[in-house]
Amino acid sequence: MKLLYVLIISSVLISCESKVVEKSAGKWYPENNPLLSGQKFKMGSDEAADMVVKVILDFADMDKNELIIENMADSVNFYSPDGFQKLDMTTTEILASFQEPYDSIQRVVISAVPLTFGEGKVNMVDAVFRERRFSDGEVNRRRVFERFWVNPEGKISTISIFPSEMAINNN
Questions:
Q1: Distance CA 47, CA 57 (A)
Q2: Is the pLDDT of residue 7 over 60?
Q3: Could you tell me if 135 and 101 are in contact, meaning their C-beta atoms sit under 8 angstroms apart?
Q4: Main-chain dihedrals φ then ψ at residue 3, nearest 5 degrees
Q5: Helices marked H in 62-112 — which ranges?
Q6: Quick one: pLDDT at residue 171?
Q7: 51 alpha carbon, distance to own chain's centre
Q8: For the domain that residue 144 is a member of, what is the CATH number?
Q9: Assigned domain for 34 exists
Q10: pTM greater than the 0.85 cutoff
Q11: Greatest Cα pair distance in the chain
Q12: Is 123 in contact with 48 (CB distance < 8 Å)?
């Protein structure tokens, strides 16, 4: 009888496989890229999120531009409040020009959320961080939301930046 109970319990446990359900949510709206219209978002890869966080922090370090270049496509679309630029990322010169006005930069990453859609062919990472930029005794504080598009080769191909200035009493 005990053997029968053990066999029944064993067969129930063996048949209870955990199933991973990939849930999708939200969607890309047609006013933007019509080719992506209606596509649902899914969670992307942690590797893409880790790469983006590393790039964000390496930029603030100001001595790691060579490492940043390794994670960039040769040409990167850059959207900022100042407008669109096509950046040549085959050298560190463009990164140095962005860093040049500052004595130092400090960044604290709040979140990095990897997303994918279109059967996993389109990947992005939405990152939020706080930044302090120091220049000639002045401190500029801001919160930043950036969206990084990661191409199929695992390289950053587009960056969209949405900064928000912070009041002086905010950290």
A1: 15
A2: no
A3: yes
A4: -65, -40
A5: 65-70, 93-99
A6: 54
A7: 8
A8: 3.10.450.50
A9: no
A10: no
A11: 84
A12: yes
